[in-house]
């Protein structure tokens, strides 16, 4: 079975639809107009014939009809015909022997209108009036030649020509207007075809005005700017990652080469320990890179309803370290999120506090600004104000961090902030009277969850 092909061009489709719609409307209006004009012309002709017939029927009843009957255009055909069908009186244009019509009005309806066609190309519009209701009454006929507008198809030809002309104008106008509207779209398509991954600096021309096409071009340019920034970030990330990976790989290679080429001059156990440290560093970087990639991807798991106070309290009690930790957590603060990801954030913050704290770590959970604020404070050296944002960048490690944890990946705080943002929250290093103070803020569930298990 063949499928009828449709125009692929939007311009052609819209033009075709507009033309078909115009033809449908114009044909309907043309038909109505044609019928109305025909009816009006015929009605006017019959009214004129009735006026003349009424005039001479009154004269016939008084036996005062002249011979011949005077007639004036357009009603030139007048006859008085008796009950036997004989022409009694007539006008010059009418026959003196042949009646204009063999039909006679009935006694109960003395006025009748007839259309008689003596020949195929000649018709008369007649008004017949019976003089008296009696059966033997004569009939007066008055008529005129059928107007040319009714006798020919000139009116239909004119309507058809007008329909075709107007439909053509509508189609041409639609084609031009749609083409003008789509011209910026073609320019956008041409520009987009020039964009490549290696060159995202190309921007789409924005047409004048504030219509949908202009908004599309503006949005596309904004998306291209974001994409260009993202690609640049990926390039910088790849450079930074390769640099960070090169350091432990170079160290591992140096230790292995020393053990291989100078077996008698190196301590084997010490070399293996150093190689393991470099290996741990590589493993930590690769693991955190994998986690960071998963966080950047869409999380298709359904979020859990989590009591933040309960989660934080359980995690603090599960952590072990040389520095004691205290926790003060409000209950009944419910959020939507991933339990495992939030545990990762808490573990990072608590492990960071354990490395830098001198004697104590305090963890609090309280409600603030429509969310749950989780604060982890220690009494260590703290974070300088100039570095409080920089520490959340990938691979950034301050001198204290490198000294206290040589095998770290430099991803811990970056991953923690990404998790916070994925939960529509924030993570920042806040002011503190002494030591470091990290605040994780997560939005609370808006609906009433008095009975969360329900």
TrEMBL record:
List, alphabetically, the CDD domains matched. HAMP (cd06225), HATPase (cd00075), HisKA (cd00082)
Species assigned in the record? Nonomuraea phyllanthi
Keyword Secreted, does the record have it? no
Q: What EC number(s) does the entry state? A: 2.7.13.3
- What subcellular compartments does it reside in? Cell membrane
Q: Which domain of life is it from?
A: Bacteria
Name one cellular component (GO) term: plasma membrane
What phylogenetic lineage does the species belong to? Bacteria, Bacillati, Actinomycetota, Actinomycetes, Streptosporangiales
Protein keywords: Kinase, Membrane, Phosphoprotein, Transferase, Transmembrane, Transmembrane helix, Two-component regulatory system
Q: Which GO terms describe its molecular function?
A: phosphorelay sensor kinase activity
Is Transferase set as a keyword in this record? yes
Give the catalysed reaction(s), semicolon-separated: ATP + protein L-histidine = ADP + protein N-phospho-L-histidine
What name appears for this protein in its UniProt entry?
histidine kinase
Matching InterPro entries? HAMP_dom, HATPase_C_sf, HATPase_dom, His_kinase_dom, HisK_dim/P_dom, HisK_dim/P_sf, Sig_transdc_His_kin-like_C, TCS_sensor_his_kinase
Question: Where does it primarily localize?
Answer: membrane
């Amino acid at each position: 079975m063949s499928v009828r092909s449709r125009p692929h061009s939007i311009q052609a489709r819209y033009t075709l639809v507009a033309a078909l719609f115009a033809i449908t409307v114009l044909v309907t209006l043309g038909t109505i107009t044609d019928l109305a004009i025909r009816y009006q012309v015929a009605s006017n002709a019959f009214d004129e014939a009735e006026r003349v017939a009424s005039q001479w029927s009154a004269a016939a009843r008084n036996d005062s009809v002249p011979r011949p009957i005077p007639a004036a255009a357009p009603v030139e055909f007048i006859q008085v015909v008796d009950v036997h069908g004989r022409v009694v009186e007539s006008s010059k244009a009418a026959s003196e022997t042949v009646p204009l019509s063999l039909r006679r009005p009935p006694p109960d309806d003395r006025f009748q209108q007839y259309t008689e066609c003596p020949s195929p190309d000649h018709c008369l519009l007649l008004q017949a009036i019976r003089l008296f209701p009696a059966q033997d009454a004569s009939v007066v006929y008055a008529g005129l030649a059928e107007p040319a507008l009714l006798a020919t198809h000139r009116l239909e030809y004119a309507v058809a020509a007008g329909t075709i002309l107007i439909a053509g104008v509508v189609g041409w106008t639609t084609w031009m207007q749609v083409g003008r509207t789509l011209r910026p779209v073609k320019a956008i398509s041409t520009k987009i075809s020039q964009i490549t991954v290696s060159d995202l600096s190309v921007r789409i021309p924005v047409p004048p005005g504030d219509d949908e096409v202009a908004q599309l071009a503006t949005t596309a340019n904004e998306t291209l700017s974001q994409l260009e920034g993202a690609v640049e970030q990926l390039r910088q990330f790849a450079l930074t990652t390769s640099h960070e990976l090169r350091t432990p790989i170079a160290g591992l290679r140096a230790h292995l080469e020393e053990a291989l080429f100078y077996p008698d001059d190196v301590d084997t156990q010490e070399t293996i320990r150093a190689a393991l440290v470099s290996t741990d560093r590589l493993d930590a970087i690769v693991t955190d890179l994998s986690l960071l990639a998963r966080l950047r991807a869409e999380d298709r798991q359904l979020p859990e309803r989590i009591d933040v106070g309960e989660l934080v309290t359980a995690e603090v009690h599960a952590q072990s370290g040389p520095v004691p930790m205290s926790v003060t957590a409000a209950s009944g603060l419910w959020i939507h999120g991933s339990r495992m990801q939030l545990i990762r954030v808490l573990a990072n913050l608590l492990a960071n506090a354990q490395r830098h704290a001198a004697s104590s770590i305090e963890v609090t959970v309280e409600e603030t600004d429509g969310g749950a604020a989780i604060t982890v404070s220690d009494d260590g050296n703290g974070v300088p104000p100039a570095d409080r944002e920089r520490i959340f960048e990938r691979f950034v490690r301050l001198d204290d961090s490198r000294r206290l944890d040589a095998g770290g990946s430099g991803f811990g705080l970056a991953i923690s902030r990404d998790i916070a943002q994925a939960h529509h929250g924030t993570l920042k290093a806040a002011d503190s009277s002494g030591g470091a103070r990290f605040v994780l803020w997560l939005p609370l569930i808006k609906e009433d969850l008095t009975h969360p298990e329900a």
